[in-house]
Amino acid sequence: MKDGRFLTLGIESSCDETAAAVVADGRDVLSSIISSQIEIHKAYGGVVPEIASRHHVTNINGVIEEALDKAGVSLEEIDLIGVTNGPGLVGALVIGIATAKALALAKNKPMVGVNHMYGHVSSNFLTYKNLKPPFVTLIVSGGHTDLALMEDYTSCKILGSTRDDAVGEAYDKVARVIGLGYPGGPKVDKLAEQGCDSLAFKRVTLEKDSYDFSFSGLKTAVLNYANSQRQKSLKINEADVARSFQEAVIDVLTDKALKAVEDLKLDKLVVAGGVGANRGLRRRLAAECEKKSIKLYLPDLAYCTDNAAMIASAAYFKYKAKGPDNLTLDALPNMAY
Ligand code: KG4
Ligand code: ZN
């Protein structure tokens, strides 16, 4: 506690970012430190789990110290430690969990394990101080593409999910096909601004009324287009590929998300996850939600991709609803919602 405020230390190490943050009352970020390993994994075209774990071990204590320093608080003043315990890379998760347990035990503090996906949704609570469930959330990240009804802070009902590739994964693969490198999402996003939807890839909507998604056909269509151009020694217009792919993704995400909000007779749409940083998606959702008088919530760009402030927020709400976890907390690499 400091100045009457409940302080949560969040710890995140589920993939290739080692992050720590201090958040007051579940909503106000006092510090958010992220040590990214992107430069290290770039050479391999994607995250190498064993290398990620080793870097988490090296970085985690320094990142936590920096988060406390920047927030101007001591470990004694922290009221709760929240740590991602799934889903994610098992060897990466255990580093954050072991650190959280050690701190909780040494300082006699309560600790909770956080579902990384609830963390992404909670990134919105940091930006919108009055946002409360229920709402429909569109979760778009490197590993997930889900439409869900967030019933309260700690429970959600999945309405639909991807049946194959996650949208971020499809972005990263398309980026590789057109030679943009890793991580591809932001690069495709940038290049798409200069292109046109000239290739008009098929929009895969699956069965009428289904909230599920499928992006592997679109990914293959991009691959086939690039291969056939190369075989014929014809030029590939990378900007048009990026734009055409992106428009096909945005059309489907926007239609299904808005339909879910209307079907459930709600009035809020909350976006979460790394692909939520996509400029084209943000613009389109804003335009379509305005037409339908749906309130749109987009996380700050700083909290779209992996960070620990969102984990601290989710931890605060989970602790208030369900109390602490005990020290048997384990990594759950395939943790469901
Ligand atoms: O949520 P996140 O940081 O990590 C996971 O939990 O998966 O999401 C990472 C994903 C990557 O696939 C990355 O390429 C994608 O988000 N991404 C983007 C953008 N920024 C990050 N995709 C499209 N446009 C962006 N601006
Ligand atoms: Zn994430």
Overview of this structure, please?
There is one protein chain. By secondary structure, the protein is α/β, with parallel strands linked by helices. Helices cover 44% and strands 19% of the residues. It is built from 10 helices and 10 strands. The strands form 2 sheets. It has a 5-stranded mixed sheet with strand order 3-2-1-4-5, sandwiched between helices. α6 (184-192) crosses α8 (238-263). The protein is globular. Bound molecules: 5'-O-[(R)-(carboxyoxy)(hydroxy)phosphoryl]adenosine (KG4) and zinc ion. Zinc ion is lined by residues 116, 120, 141, 274, 306.
Task: Describe the secondary structure blueprint for this structure.
Elements lengths: L6 E6 L4 E8 L3 E9 L1 H5 L6 H23 L8 E7 L3 H18 L3 E5 H12 L7 E6 L4 E8 L2 E7 L5 H11 L6 H9 L23 H16 L6 H26 L4 E5 L6 H13 L3 E3 L11 H14 L15
Parallel strand pairs: 1-4, 4-5, 6-9, 9-10
Antiparallel strand pairs: 1-2, 2-3, 6-7, 7-8
Helix pairs in contact: 2-3, 4-10, 5-6, 5-7, 5-8, 6-8, 8-9
Bound molecules: 5'-O-[(R)-(carboxyoxy)(hydroxy)phosphoryl]adenosine and zinc ion.
Helix content: 40-55%
Describe the global form. Answer: globular
How many angstroms separate the termini? 30 Å
Low-confidence stretches: none
- CA radius of gyration: 20 Å
Strand-and-helix sequence, N→C? EEEHHEHEHEEEHHHHEHEH
Query: Biggest sheet, open or closed, and with what strands and sense?
Result: 5 strands, mixed
β-strand number: 10
How much of the polypeptide forms β-strand, as a percent range?
Answer: 15-25%
Bound ligands: 5'-O-[(R)-(carboxyoxy)(hydroxy)phosphoryl]adenosine, zinc ion
pLDDT average, as an integer? 96
Strand order of the largest sheet: 3-2-1-4-5
Category from helices, strands and their pairing: alpha/beta
What's the helix count? Answer: 10
